[in-house]
From TrEMBL:
Belongs to the type-II 3-dehydroquinase family. This is 3-dehydroquinate dehydratase. PROSITE patterns: DEHYDROQUINASE_II. NCBIfam families: aroQ, PRK05395.1-2, PRK05395.1-3, PRK05395.1-4. Its EC number is 4.2.1.10. The gene is aroQ. It is an enzyme of class 4 (lyase). GO terms for molecular function: 3-dehydroquinate dehydratase activity. It comes from Thermincola ferriacetica. SUPFAM superfamilies: Type II 3-dehydroquinate dehydratase. It catalyses: 3-dehydroquinate = 3-dehydroshikimate + H2O.
Amino acid sequence: MARIKVIHGPNLNLLGKREPDIYGTVSLDRINARLEEIAAELGLKLEIVQFNAEGQIIDAIQEAAVSCQGILINPAAYTHYSIAIRDAIAASAIPTVEVHLSNIYAREEFRHVSVTASVCAGQISGFGPRSYELGLRALADIIKDK
């Protein structure tokens, strides 16, 4: 059974309350529950974490490189400037899919750049909670094809 580390970045613990016009009203717990349903359907085991601190996200990526076959990550604001998270993803050498609830390319200009996307197998954004679902399914296919 393949193991996937799901990493939620800063402020995602506030989903459902935080800027619902941008991020919707679905809570992080609900997103995680749906991911668990899909994982069971696909024969995957998930390890789900959420951190507000950059260093904890890096630690989670490094742990995943040892114990998991893939990473599903929403780096949130760190997407746009964390070279450290980018480098940790690159060093992990396991498939990583980046997801975002909102379409980062339709928002403020500073959000149009993802420093992490170039070291990921792919990026899915703009589909709300479905971004996570689509990302998990894509990651499962990548792992299966390896």
